[in-house]
Amino acid sequence: MCGIYLTNFNYKEEVIREKLRGISFRGPDNLQVERVKNVSLGHLRLSILDLDKRSNQPYIYSHYHIVFNGEIYNFKDIKEELILEGFDFETTSDTEVLIKGYAHWGRDLLPRLNGMFAFAIYDEIKNELFCARDRLGVKPFYYYWKDGNLEICSQLRPLISTNSVLDKDAISIYLDCGYIPSPLTIFENIYKLPPGHTMHVDFNDKKRIIEQYWDLKPVKVTNLSYNDAKEQLHSLLIDAVKIRMQADVPLGSFLSGGIDSALVSAIAAKHSSVPINTFTIGFDDPQYDESKVAAEYAKIIGSHHTETVCTPEQILQMLGEFKKVYDEPFADSSALPSLLLNKITKKHVTVALSGDGGDESFIGYWHLMLVDKFKKVNWLPLSIRKVLSLIPFNMLLGTRPETLKGILQSKDENELIVKIFTSFDSLNLKQDYQWVDKYFPQFKKLAYEPLQRAADLNIKLWLENDSNVKVDRASMAFSVESRSPFLDYRIIEFARTLPISYRFKEGVTKRIIRDILKEYIPEKVFTQPKKGFAIPLGQWIRNELKGDILAKLNDEFLNSIPNLDVVKFKKQLKEHYQNKYDYSFSIWKLYVLALWSEEFNVSFSNHVAN
């Protein structure tokens, strides 16, 4: 994993180097810049395969020049095909395979690739550029585009200038969900290339064409028996793990108390010639600590296990790193322990396997359960449900009033699904959620089962813009490459063909994954309740962070934020400090926005376009 950069702005080389030094954590092993005609390419390298300098980038083949971030896991198979076509190779890297594959097949190379990637290939003869991002958006791809001027980077920070104008719509969406989904960024004229898309730029005509090469397809449920499906999935998982174990640097595996990381680590341990290294962090608060379960897993699979028990002070110290590497407002508080985990892991390995992506495909998240529970009340007429929503049942259920109202007042499953992913207690004054239909209209049409529709929106919206962002920035902050077998597109596609009952049955989530894990770890060990990779954020807001939060979230700041429901937020803030309800997510969203504006010296009142 690395950092890529490309532009047709006439910047001096030192200006580009300075931009890249600002994100040098993405690739500390080499910084290289070259200019070809009117295009400058830059690259930060984190050496994983073929550590020799011959594989440094920008890499040149014939009249093609590439900057590439990520890993092509099946590059050896593609390399064999190219050798049969007459190609010779000078390195053992996937970069050379990628550029020569493009030279031979053009965009038809993309369906052959299995990996996580964001790359740009400049053709100096045609003065054209071809870019692509992986199917699930594991690797980031930011770009500025206006009037034929282009600037590409793996992070947002190098693209920000004094002329950058904040995007009010993007800020409104952030108030809905705590992140800014592609293709938007927080600035006008700076975009994210969506997952599974290509971008072709003709510098001669100053034209840009964006096309989709992969997407979720309408669900066709398999007629495989449960046992046959389990066997096929197991084989896919084994292959997905094995191809992600290719590295010329030390490799390990993240291991929490969850079943996804346990299965990935167990498969890796079985197919490794030496004991693997596993890593977990625990918390001194037993409500959030999973380290004891992880230690049991490690003992069973025979890994060299590193466990670090963390204090609140250690995690809060990550706020400085958080502001540095999350260069767009991002309100997932689990980014803080993720940063700490990677900091510890880097002392031992450079590549780490993870269990990310298992919940999306195998119905594991609690919020997906709301869709299932909705069936129990959906038979009631909406008018009756609206009346019931006014009764304070939430006091008995221990939920926020907005959550219960959001469920009961949803006209159908699709409306509920959108609310789940845009927060029941959104601070956005608009609250029309039309942006979901604009950017993700297909989720309603791909599957008959409401649970699958919710899982699909989870993949298209949350996975790319929250989970993948969290993992990429937290790992790259300490120059660690994180690889998740569950994000292998073959597993995503196969899982969607499985009947819901194979994945979720009688309240049991990830049923088929649990049954595969039984072949490695006794069921009694992994049936303990999952606590999630969370922190006691609500407590910290009332205690350790209280002074800073109240200072930053003052009236002047709150009133400067476009479309923020200030009255609603102040009510939530008051009730949180009265310990009446937990509004930590709402408060954290605004606090992160304040931290971001400080870090980038941006005033919302001065910079938002009218």
TrEMBL record:
Pathway named in the protein's UniProt entry: Amino-acid biosynthesis; L-asparagine biosynthesis; L-asparagine from L-aspartate (L-Gln route): step 1/1
GO MF annotation, one: asparagine synthase (glutamine-hydrolyzing) activity
Presence of the UniProt keyword ATP-binding in the record: yes
EC code: 6.3.5.4
Glutamine amidotransferase type-2 domain boundaries: 2-204
The entry's keywords: ATP-binding, Glutamine amidotransferase, Ligase, Nucleotide-binding
EC main group: ligase
Reactions listed under catalytic activity: L-aspartate + L-glutamine + ATP + H2O = L-asparagine + L-glutamate + AMP + diphosphate + H(+)
Listed InterPro entries: Asn_synth_AEB, Asn_synthase, ASN_synthetase/amidase, AsnB_N, GATase_2_dom, Ntn_hydrolases_N, Rossmann-like_a/b/a_fold
Domain of life from the UniProt record: Bacteria
A Pfam family matched in the record: Asn_synthase
Keyword Nucleotide-binding part of the UniProt annotation: yes
Annotated family: Belongs to the asparagine synthetase family.
UniProt protein name: asparagine synthase (glutamine-hydrolyzing)
Organism: Sphingobacterium hotanense
Name of the coding gene: asnB
